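Entry: Beta-galactosidase
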Amino acid sequence: MSEKLYHGAAYYPELWTEDVIEQDIKLMLETGINVVRIGEFAWSTMEPIEDQINLSFFKVIVNKLYEHGIETIFCTPTPTPPIWFTYKHPERMYVDRDGRTMGHGSRQHACTNNHYFRERAAIITEHIVQTLGNHPGIIGWQIDNEFKCHVSECMCETCKSLWHEWLKNRYKTIENLNEAWGTHIWSEYYHHFEQVPQPGPAPFLHNSSLNTMYKIFSMEKIAEFSDQQAEVIRTYSSAPITHNSSIAFSVDNERLFKNLDFASFDTYASIENFSAYLINCDLWRNFKKGKEFWIMETSTSFAASLESCASPHPNGYLKAEAAAAYALGAEGFCYWLWRQQRTGCEQPHSSVISAWGKPTVGYKNVIEVEHMRKEFEPIILSTKPVQADLAITYSDRAKVFLATEPHKGLNHRGLVTNYYERILSMGIHRDVIPEGASFEGYKVVLTPFIHFLSDDYLIRGKHFVENGGIWIVGPLTGGRTEEHTIHTDRALGELEKLAGVKVLFTYPMDQSGTIGSAFGCSAPLGLWSTVFEYSEEHSVGTITEGLSAGKSFLTEHSLGKGKIVMLGAMPIGREGDVLLKRMIDHYSILAEVNQRTDVTPGTIVAPRENDHSIIWFMINMDGNGGSVTIPFKGYDIKNKIEIESGKLEIGPFECKMVEFQK
């Protein structure tokens, strides 16, 4: 990609007349939009009748944009197959868990595993890339749009056949599957793979192994489709490829981005959920470590559809979002969408320009983002994000395990975000890393809410600790096997042995009156919890009240040069927040975590560096203003003045840049 920061929007020229398109380009130039994303829902425009493909309209549009200095990310249009593909072909359509077959319309109505869908998707993609692949205006490709946003696991006959094939490849023999899943329970025993059902309607709950494995099968198949699309694109173009995803969708993002060139995401978090916005930046920075990520979609003011709407952003928040994104490693910051749609199910959604061509309520904020982008660009391009000392693991596979076994409504995304908020509020610079990421360069790694830990993860964790790292594990971690069954040798399997602890019980502690004490404070304990045998040598946190009084909920075990810390239960409530932060602070100090400072709630520091200096981008996200403690003398880049160490005030939604010499 070019050496610039991108400020862009999704654009649908196929919906507008030539004079409106001319007006749009003029307004884009005035607004500072330097990249647009087009094509993702335009299959019927490109191929209105089967095998009659005409891309001349889009070639003209890409040319016209490029002539005006606006670059393009072109998308494959596969989320919305045309009527010729769907009409009278229910066998090609997505089937939900209740057995309902989707009809034409909306999007994601086709089964992406259907053989004919894959064939037609490859054909239209090949035509697009043959036509536009060498165009200088094309700076990147986006595959499809928001995989598994509205749908999850398909239950059609095609998927059933592929499911049985997937099981054969995984288990080799039906006896291996029966043993792994424990199918003698409730007479679920199978005699051949073709008898294994899809987890559709049932009187009660499906076997955990069946449910979890089907979700993993589905995630692997959608990544396979992405790989096939990327392979077609690479035949004719060298421009980088991405997909616009989210941790909210039914995909394994780590697997999805494995064979793509850069990572991008969509987010519509409102101001009260700014931590949910930031956790995406800290995670997407690490899906393709060392490469910039993109925010491919966010709202200029509010998200809305025919049935829902969010609160609009206060003035100034959009600039704070963009500042945080660029500082934390984004190359592109883009809106959905440029011109408000006059038809369809998302007519009310906020945009840059209204359907009648006038500025919207968010327009002023878009202009602010553009001014900020120009100010940031030389600094961002000459620096890179500082390596964090602390990392927290996020896992889409763990999301699947918790979807099967939610323990009264828990979900991985919410749990990890809540944990992440504590670290954020402590002013610790952090990475959120996928499950398969290296631990190299970190001093503290946290692994909460991951039911199954692979042998590979355990090996990396052991190596990390032996070399001086502090690994904080739990809660809700390690208690299930790869097949989503219970360990039979010990409660946490190999993790328990590695951590030098003995688990006595596992049970739900919520509303059980359990109190834990550690680091000079006490708090109620909750979630499905693990209770450890008390040991003078290893116990750090003791249960003082409840069913397991006198036992441990927090342990510490030295291994090599480092420590494994086991958190068996979640401190909850206001007291729990204090206890959890004290634990993180204690081990951060012990590990000499240096990438941190004191911040007030709602204000963050995003450090970047080059060979001779470190630059702190200090951004207020909540609109209340705040302060950051400056550790030593620095230089205020915008105001061109030296500043002394101490508290530096940050105004509402303000961003300050302070440079420190190395």
